[in-house]
Specification:
The structure holds 2 protein chains of 2 kinds.
Chain A: H1 2-5, H2 10-16, H3 19-28, H4 31-48, H5 50-53, E1 74-77, E2 80-92, E3 99-122, E4 125-134, H6 139-142, H7 155-191, H8 193-207, H9 211-221, H10 228-259, H11 262-269, H12 274-310, H13 322-326, H14 332-337, H15 345-365
Antiparallel strand pairs in A: 1-2, 2-3, 3-4
Chain B: H1 2-28, H2 34-44, H3 51-61, H4 67-79, E1 85-86, E2 91-92, H5 93-128, H6 133-147, H7 150-164, H8 175-178, H9 184-221, H10 224-231, H11 236-242, H12 244-254, H13 256-274, H14 279-288, H15 292-320, H16 322-327
Antiparallel strand pairs in B: 1-2
Classes of the chains: A alpha+beta, B mainly alpha.
Chain lengths: 370, 328
């Protein structure tokens, strides 16, 4: 610690730094990657706190309020900060017979932060506090920040839960692919020979098959009577069964190039065991690359799940994911009548963009000597 | 060189075989078979059929035999060019998917051609004018292209087209040509409708290729031979186009092999959104109805076509890159 506070000159600082310090310094230069990191962390916080951030029960169906447009909060009442929402009245348009909603300014529902709403469970405990809550009426009946879907369910609250599903499926799927990728890529790269050839051919075969038709086939094959959780895990497995190939290639490539490095030869000559070479000398030097490759693999997972659910072959209701939400926006007619149903595209795009920036920055930083 | 081609060819054969097995497994996975679904449909419409009739149907379609025999039978039929009946349509599969398969390929190839023609010059520009305004703009568009899943892009463009231009985007033909026989006017009509799907399908790939091209070219531009070429007094255009661009093209070409399956894959979802008459919408209905011959043939045909595409791209790669030619 004492040495660091003395501010050694730049060159000395670099030669004294550990690899992770070098990576960190290099990462700090990537503004976009850091912005990406912050956004990704925020989104995963949303995933964690979905119950708290939602204010309505996402499964609360009320056909009377179907396809209600977004309904904003009034922040000031009589010049004082006192957020409230106006009540809504549904009427029929006398000419077109379409259902229209009129703001009823005579009814005011004050909003409370950290107020009470529907009950949710977390780690076995029961809670009923939410970031936003309505006084005087259930939130399900008066508060619609982003409007409602065709069954009258609140889009904002469903979006919170969808974020949780889609983000965790990405993370879980990548973990599974990473396991397969490191195992098979590692074997392939470290041992080489016929085993390597075989694994490489398998990867080539898998990669030359168009994935979406394959996923569609597998997704359609999941029994209809399976529970939400079963389908969730099955979809994760299906996505990773094909997704591991890219990670395996990265791992194999790293192993192959590292095997030729002088310091590995030196370690071999010094009499290190194989395990020591792998874990003490090789893994630390490619761990950062693997982390970067993994980050870049998550968006692909998220897009795949979204596409599959969008087609109705992935997660199915009552599960909520971004793809499931977008199913409502499948055709131009529904977009024309209720454009707010496309809102779920925004988080998808933002998350994927952020993860790409983050992964890119990590990949550059992973090679501090490059 | 010959052994390289042979090796690639053998790999293609193995891949095709693997795809047949996969296609068959996919079709067999769901519980029940076509007849069960057929019976359910009849029952819900109020005219149930008897157990005997159901069994007769199963025997007729060979659904009562063990799995491997069904597979061999299916393969045997395929090899003779008989793809079976699309059960729900009561028509031979060949008749239903023929045109759609061609259109799938047309859309995919159009997307790839567009990707190439757009990505190559932009990639060169971005590398030569690194950190210029244009470079930043293209990098930004590129990132958007990667981040927006193509079916969402289709949705958004469709909405924008409807809302602000009051036109409906979608389909591959104008109504008057949809059922018409092929003619020059119909081809022109198709080309007009092709631009948008090709753009949507190609955007993500274009973005990636621009970045690959830019990175490769930047590496090449720093090499001493570029300085030598400049010192010799070659014009800047010639310096760049003659050597570094050609060297940077190698990894560019090698990615097509993986890019082709990706585009075909994407065309399935995009077709559903834009209601293009490709095999995409057909595959979805076939899978939902568990129409074994139809869904199986589509998955198989898409696979076979991507394998052929990959094989062709390998040949192109060999033609571009002398190192591969010499090695084999």
């Amino acid at each position: 610690m004492a040495i660091q506070t003395q501010q050694p000159d730049a060159e000395e600082r670099i030669s004294l730094a550990t690899q992770w310090q070098l990576i960190w310094w290099r990462f700090r230069k990537h503004t976009l990657a850091q912005i990406g990191a912050v956004i990704v962390i925020l989104f995963y916080l949303v995933a964690l706190l979905a119950d708290f951030l939602a204010y309505s029960d996402p499964t609360y169906v009320e056909a009377q309020r179907s396809l209600l447009p977004p309904h904003g909060i009034q922040w000031f009442d009589d010049g004082k900060f006192a957020p409230f929402v106006y009540g809504l009245k549904g009427t029929r348009d006398p000419v077109t017979f379409k259902r229209v909603y009129v703001t009823d300014t005579s009814q005011k529902y004050p909003l409370r932060f950290f107020g009470k709403g529907f009950e949710w469970k977390f780690l076995g405990f029961k809670f009923d506090r939410h970031l936003l809550a309505v006084e005087g009426a259930p939130a399900e009946e008066v508060l619609f920040l982003l409007g409602t879907d065709s069954l009258g369910r609140d889009l904002w609250s469903r979006l919170m839960y969808a974020t949780r599903t889609s983000l965790t499926i990405g993370l879980l799927g990548v973990t599974l692919s990473l396991f397969l990728g490191i195992l098979l890529g590692g074997i392939s790269g470290y041992y080489g020979g016929p085993l390597d050839t075989f694994i490489q051919r398998v990867i080539e075969v898998i990669r030359s098959i168009p994935t979406i038709p394959l996923w569609m086939g597998l997704g359609a094959a999941l029994p209809r009577e399976w529970s939400v959780t079963q389908v969730y895990f099955a979809i994760t497995v299906i996505l990773s069964l094909i997704g591991w190939t890219e990670l395996a290639r990265v791992v194999r490539g790293r192993f192959l190039s590292l095997r030729e490095e002088d310091y590995i030869t030196a370690a071999e000559l010094a009499g290190c065991s194989q395990l020591r070479i792998i874990f003490r000398h090789m893994v630390p030097s490619f761990l950062s690359h693997i982390i970067a490759a993994t980050t870049l693999a998550i968006p692909a997972m998220i897009i795949s799940e979204t596409a599959l659910s969008f087609l109705g072959l992935g997660l199915r209701p009552p599960a909520v994911s971004w793809g499931v939400l977008l199913q409502d926006a499948q055709n131009v007619q529904s977009l024309a009548i209720s454009p707010w149903l496309v809102i779920p595209t925004i988080p998808v795009i933002v998350v994927i963009l952020s993860l790409n920036f983050l992964g890119d920055g990590l990949r550059d930083a992973a090679d501090p000597y490059g | 060189m010959l052994s390289y081609i042979l090796r690639r060819f053998l790999l293609a054969i193995v891949t095709v075989w693997a795809i047949t097995v996969l296609a068959f497994v996919i079709i067999q996975l769901p519980p029940g078979d076509f007849v069960t679904i057929y019976i359910n449909a009849l029952q819900s419409s109020g005219s149930p059929i008897s157990y005997g009739q159901a069994e007769a149907m199963r025997a007729q379609y060979g659904l009562d035999q063990p799995m491997y025999i069904q597979y061999l039978k299916w393969m045997g039929m395929m090899l003779q060019g008989d793809f079976g009946m699309a059960l729900a349509w009561n028509k031979p599969v060949k008749e239903i998917i023929g045109d759609r398969l061609t259109l799938t390929m047309v859309v995919s190839i159009a997307a790839i051609l567009l990707t190439w023609t757009v990505a190559l010059p932009i990639g060169i520009y971005s590398a030569v004018r690194q950190y210029s305004l244009g470079d930043y703009v293209f990098t930004f568009i590129g990132f958007i292209g990667i981040a927006v899943p193509n079916f969402m892009l289709a949705l958004i463009l469709m909405y924008v087209g409807y809302k602000y231009f009051n036109m409906s985007i979608g389909g591959l033909f104008s109504p008057q040509y949809a059922e018409a026989p092929w003619s020059l006017a119909k081809v022109l009509d198709l080309l007009q409708h092709l631009i948008l799907p090709a753009l949507i399908l190609g955007l993500a790939g274009t973005a990636q290729l621009i970045r690959i091209m830019r990175a490769n070219l930047l590496d090449e531009l720093r090499k001493p031979y570029v300085v030598t070429a400049r010192a010799k007094g070659l014009s800047e255009t010639r310096v760049i186009l003659k050597y570094p661009v050609r060297a940077a093209l190698n990894p560019f070409a090698s990615t097509i092999g993986y890019y082709f399956p990706y585009v075909v894959s994407g065309s399935i979802v995009v077709s559903l959104v834009l209601s293009l008459p490709t095999v995409g919408p057909l595959l979805l209905t076939a899978l939902v109805a568990q129409d074994m011959f139809l869904a199986g043939t589509i998955v198989l045909m898409l696979g076979v076509m991507t394998v052929i595409g990959t094989f062709v791209s390998d040949l192109i790669l060999m033609w571009i890159d002398p190192r591969i030619r010499m090695e084999g």
